[in-house]
Write a structure and sequence with these properties.
mainly alpha; flat
Length: 88
């Protein structure tokens, strides 16, 4: 029997796959950037749900580091896209 934790994990995995499709076929860079940010948030949510389900705080530490790197990566990609746009 599936518990509510498992249902939420499968839900986030499914929406992550759909967001990955948007990253691949996104018509513009902005669409891809938003989808990448959404995937990052969904993976973060999965890590937090696993931490609550297994009652292990190590997953919360991993989620925090993942979120920090995701934010820094998002800033780097945004800066690159802005430089590319202004050079045209």
């Amino acid at each position: 029997m599936l518990l509510s934790w498992d249902i939420m994990i499968y839900f986030f995995l499914g929406t992550t796959v759909l967001s990955m499709v948007r990253i691949v076929i996104g018509p513009s860079s902005a669409d891809r950037l938003i989808a990448l940010n959404l995937v990052s948030a969904q993976v973060l949510a999965i890590l937090v749900i696993i931490a609550a389900k297994e009652n292990l705080s190590i997953y919360l530490d991993v989620a925090l580091v993942y979120d920090i790197f995701g934010f820094v990566g998002l800033l780097a990609i945004t800066r690159y896209l802005l430089k590319k746009e202004t050079s045209k």
